[in-house]
Amino acid sequence: MELHQVRYFLAVANTLNFTRAAEMCNVTQPALTKGVQKLEQELGGQLIYRERQLTHLTDLGKAVFPMLERALASTEGVRRRAREFRQKKVAPLTIGLAPSISASLVLEPIAEIRKVVQGLNVELREESPSRLVELLLEGVVNLALVGDLEDKPDRIDDWALFEERYVAVLSPSHELAGLPVIGMKALREAIILDRLDCDVAPKVHRLCFPDALPHYNHRSSRDLHLQHLAAAGFGIVLAPEHMPRLPSLKALPIEGDPVWREVRLLAVQGRRYSPALDAFVKVARLRDWSLPAGSPLQTEQRGHLEASGMVARLASPIS
Amino acid sequence: MNIELNLAKTLNQVRSKLLAGLSNTDREAYTHLVDWLRKTDVASGALQVGDTAPDFLLPDVHGRLHSSEHLRGDGPLVVSFYRGGWCPFCNAELRALQAVRAEFDSLKANLVVLSPETGDLPRRLKRELSLDLTVLADVDHAVAISYGVLFRLPDETKAHYARQGYDFGRRHGSTEWMLPIPATFVVDQGGIVRGAFVEPDFTIRQEPSDILNKLRQLAGSQSDEPSLFHE
To answer: What residue intervals traverse the membrane (chain A) (predicted)?
Structure first.
């Protein structure tokens, strides 16, 4: 398989027109057709139905398209990155985070790509998973990290990054804080601090509180506010294990670890990856997510920032 | 030199031993794949000596990014494609490269091995084989395509590996089952390919001693000073 063959195929796939594809690739139509045919031979099947009025992708063409699109973007991204580096262009990257995903998760990957992408401007945006999918398709958000996601359009690429459990976060002076594990009965009797708009709440209710909703006396849409309430002894926060905590709080496992979820990375298929997006996706697909989400983040200052769950615009470099 | 010869011998010995241990089914699948690769002439599109090697930016097993421009900043770059941690021939090659790693350092050459696998697989392989090599993940096979060594598994081979429990879609984070032909390229500081070993028979790998000899030739040809290295 050769790069120019891939480029020809993607040009046809994107235009569904051999003449326009040849113009885009700056080659003659016979040369383009020959390149696509050679690729078809190597891939063991037809990629494109060539009909007079209707040129369209075969099932094989549809199957290989997303991967080849990303591969070409990656290759071209290296050249683009060098060019943009010279031109000192701004490289925006908007990352969508579901409410249950802490910004702490993306800090290390962002810091890594900032080393190679000049002018990186990151925007972090918190929305529900379904809204994030809409924003991805609209091109407002470049990539998103979500937990469980029920309906995902075919056009969304989706990589499972890691699994994590939910834990009980509470003050060391809480009456349950001395236990090694919080039992289900004790949890159902305790006051739980309600995270408004939490995407994982239905799952928590189903698995931990099947008969009656938790005792929700206090609530907030900000994780940081809930943590302050917990630190003051107002109740327990149920949080994903990666979530940074105020130093004044402790986390305990829940009996039987009933709630687990997978953290997933989403991006849109068939959309040209920018160098920043390409680099982020690569780093995300390789890094060891099982590491504690940056123990330095557990300091009070970073904890405040990261636990806030706020939509954050990082205009200045992360130190 | 003796060490290199011994290692080369070991690599060959391992190959012979692994080939002798193949079951009839495995041997059939092996023969079928190699015949198919030769018939379709997949390797004909691979980079050759004198070609410009496309640059790349890939993550290592810790998610740190490495650019080829930087990797060849102080000396030649050796790019070795392997098929994955499930392949015993690849693992034998990685061990052999690990054994002469210091030789690469002394020649100021950077050796990187490119894996088509993602997630924690390259990390686990490094740990299990105690590798101190730079293992990069060729995410979505972009570099294998640009070096002309990627192919899509024929249906018979795919069925064979699937029966053995290998799910390359999951291992690569992709729906399509593709693999690189194992290959080794020596790229000079200017980004020009100075050595290319591309062998459709995936049981045959370039001997580490041959790679080192190529690097010595390169060092000799690029220096006006008498070479510090002896053949």
So the answer is: none
> What range defines the domain where residue A281 resides?
88-163+261-314
β-pair partners for A122: A93, A314
Residue A203 and residue A66 share a domain: no
Q: A152: burial class by Cβ within 10 Å (0-12, 13-18, 19+)?
A: middle
All structural domains of chain B? 2-222 (3.40.30.10)
ipTM above 0.85, yes or no: no
Q: Is the domain of A70 the same as that of A213?
A: no
Crossing angle of helices B208-222 and B2-20, in 10° steps, is 140
Structural domains of chain A, count = 3
Terminal CA-CA length for chain A:
43
Q: Flag whether residue A6 sits within 8 Å of chain B, measured between CB atoms.
A: yes
* CB pair distance less than 8 Å for A2 and B55: no
At which residue do the structure tokens 């806030």 appear? A308
In this predicted model, what pLDDT tens digit does every residue of A202-234 receive, in sequence order? 999 999 999 999 999 899 998 999 999 999 999
- A200 and A284 inside one domain: no
Q: What is the CATH number of the domain that holds A304?
A: 3.40.190.10
Q: B146–A66: do the CB atoms touch at under 8 Å? A: no
pLDDT at B136: 97
Residues in CB range of A207: below 8 A, 6 or more apart: A258, A259
A142 φ/ψ angles, rounded to the nearest 5 degrees: -85, -35
Cβ under 8 Å to A: B residues 163-192: 173-176, 178
Tell me if A16 is assigned to some domain.
yes
In angstroms, rounded to a whole number, what is the distance separating the alpha carbons of residues A201 and B164? 40
Q: What is the mean pLDDT of chain A?
A: 85
Gap from A6 CA to chain B (nearest CA, Å): 8
Are A212 and A75 part of one and the same domain?
no
Which residues of chain B neighbour A290 with C-beta distances below 8 Å?
Answer: 120
Q: Are residues A172 and A251 in the same domain?
A: yes
Residues A159 and A266 in one domain: yes
Q: Which helix (H) or strand (E) holds A126?
A: strand A120-126
Neighbour count for residue A113 (Cβ, 10 Å): 26
Return phi, psi of residue B111, to 5°.
-105, 125
Instruction: Give SS3 for B119.
Output: coil
Coil, strand or helix at B77: strand
Q: Is residue A319 part of a domain?
A: no
Residues A176 and A292 grouped into a single domain = no
Chain segment A86-103, per-residue pLDDT in tens: 666 788 999 999 988 999
